[in-house]
Amino acid sequence: MIIILFIECETFYGDYFFCASFFLIGICFSTSFFELCKNKNYKLTNKIEKEL
Known about the structure:
By secondary structure, the chain is mainly α. It is 83% helix and 0% strand. The chain crosses the membrane at residues 12-34.
């Protein structure tokens, strides 16, 4: 499922890094390590939010 979504995302956006970052942040939000992950990826999250 995730692989299919990743391929569709790459086809739509044409940017592997953007898609990989998007899915990694999605995993962070869905785990109990949310706070640790949010702090670790704070700058990356802000960058993607600005692009959206």
